[in-house]
Amino acid sequence: MSTTTTDLTALTGTYTIDPAHTRIGFVARHAMVTKVRGAFNEFEGGAYLDGANPANSTAKVTIKAASIDTRNAQRDEHLRSNDFLAMEQYPAITFVSTAVRQTSGADFEVTGDLTIKGVTNSITIPFTYEGAATDPFGAVRVGFEGSVTINRKDYGVTWNAALETGGVLVSDKIVLEFEVSAVKNS
């Protein structure tokens, strides 16, 4: 099965995110001169896709905050601490959609409530539909990619350190990146 971007009706159904083929990542500026990239390795979620009327679609994701991975154990421990994600008190980061809008053939805006450290804000994530296929096991699989910039201070993540040369160690703006593969429930 291969689905074109103009005919999404065949995709209607309930989907489960495939964590082995999905990346939920982020990018932050470090010391104002470089980027640090990371990801969350443990999450679950799903979506209901309405191909005929995308506005009826919904999505929900729950991320385990402790699964943060920047490929540096010391930095990851600091990010899990009360300075940043306070994962013992707030073990989950969640996103629950409130609206879906098709902006063009393959482009969508998913608006929803993002909760980090117990603080909820509405954000809109632009997504591009990357296609659908039937995998070797007979399952219908869809792909979406998107990213959005948030201000971490809007979620109570305020720790920082001043640099001797001016500026700060960690940027306020964080880019959240989503590369999603989801499998249609049978």
Automatic annotation (TrEMBL):
Coiled coil: none annotated. Residues 14-183 form the Lipid/polyisoprenoid-binding YceI-like domain. Belongs to the UPF0312 family. PANTHER family: PROTEIN YCEI. This is Polyisoprenoid-binding protein.
